[in-house]
Design a protein that fits this description.
mainly alpha; 71 residues
């Protein structure tokens, strides 16, 4: 319904679902930023995980935004 939207699956379960959609050709991997932790307070590692992955995720978001920018 939103073919150009950026997809950010939050947590392992959502990432697994996104991976299945990518494997089935339903979702373009170029629209996905994999690696964001689930923001729940139950996820005690979320801050550490986010800090470790932040630069890579920021590059992915930037790459997607650059591709969508008008020429």
């Amino acid at each position: 319904m939103a073919p150009d939207a950026l997809v950010i699956p939050l947590g392992k379960a959502a990432q697994t679902a996104a991976a299945l959609l990518i494997a089935d050709g339903i979702l373009d991997v170029g629209r996905c930023v994999i690696g964001f932790p689930h923001p729940s307070g139950q996820n005690g590692h979320r801050v550490k995980h986010y800090a470790a992955e932040r630069d890579d995720m920021a590059r992915e978001v930037g790459r997607w935004a650059e591709a969508k920018a008008p020429a």
